[in-house]
Amino acid sequence: MKHSLMTSALAALLACAGQTVLYAQDPIIQTKYTADPAPMLHNDTVFLYTSHDEDDAQGYGFKMLDWQLYTSTDMVNWTDHGAVASLKDFTWRKRDNGAWALQVVERNGKFYMYCPLHGNGIGVLVSDSPYGPFKDPIGKPLVWQKEHWDDIDPTVYIDDDGQAYMYWGNPNLYYVKLNEDMISTSGDIVKIGKLKTYQEGPWFYKRDGHYYLAFASTCCPEGIGYAMSDSPTGPWDVKGYIMRPTERTRGNHPGIVDYKGKTYVFGQNYDLLRLEMEEHHERRSVSVAEMHYNADGTIQEVPYFKDVKVEQVELFNPYRRVEAETMAWGYGLKTEKMPGGGIYVTAVDDGDSLIVRGVDFGKRGAKRFRACIASEQGCTVEIHLDSVDGPLVGTLEVKATGGMQAYKEMECRVKGAKGVHDLVFLFKGGAGKNLMNWDYWRFG
Q1: What is the value of pTM for the model shown?
Q2: Which CDD domains does the entry mention (predicted)?
Q3: Active site residues
């Protein structure tokens, strides 16, 4: 039920002294079900790769066909880039399901995507761009121990001496060295076995001379645990939890990145699904929280995602072309790929809203608003500040354009949009459903 958004539980999530978007941050993606977050830092931008639970996944069975990409420079507003790879990129695969937890790393100007194909081992794709396209350079699994199904959830780190390592596994933990080409292995696979509380989903990295292995910990429910070592190959000392198991979520999977002086831990939960129903399906959603280290390198325990607030690290500039699929909150909306490339926002119904956090209109303020939209029936886009009930600073009257892919630019006057505010687009239309498709917007 799409507009269960207005239930009291969600109202409590979103409402705080009229600042609608303040707590509208977890899960950070609402237009798709996402899981297995794998952040990567490139060109002062966080690239967040995720696996993707299909909307029609049923019960405890996973339906996962591709991998998605989102980017952010402020940690609260995320731009959807759609699927950047899928099972179809591996012609040797034996199964049509199982696009599980991936990781992307950069080396020598190329980007390597390590992908588990459940039941078919771990493959690797490569691209000249973090946005793809990614191609299979070897035409076979990088790793496949056919005697079992442990080969999932790869994590790769390149050490200071240039040696790369790949860890993976459920329920056993394994590692192997990678050659400099990043698409072949060096030496034998080493089986570490079962660390205390380890379940799956390892995330391997180094910081201030310490090696870390974060992982989905304890089952069930799962939290996020971690171990430390003085060596990239162990032995590993399990220290405890980054986030304790909680009945509010069934599974977890960590991804950790340092960005603009802060450390963030990503994980997953079922909070987006819970806006719809209590019934369980494997439709997960990615969340993020700030994480802190102690002086000795150990990690301070992080509260559950919904109990913390991620601060915006950079104000949002509205005086440029902004892709409509950039948002902090867009529950009920969907995104699709355009026939010629690019992404657009769709499934826009009467009463839906799209929120962008921390928009800096400056002292002079915005005077006009322009958007590129396609619509068969026409509708209205109200522009509010801070909340759906906040000040109305402009109204864009969307005329029928001749079809849902017939995009046209249109504009309206804006008055009162000055300073820093959360920006809320509220959609209205008598037809109720599928009011418009939206490509991009800008203020002027």
Answers
A1: 0.94
A2: CBM6_xylanase-like, GH43_Xsa43E-like
A3: 36, 200
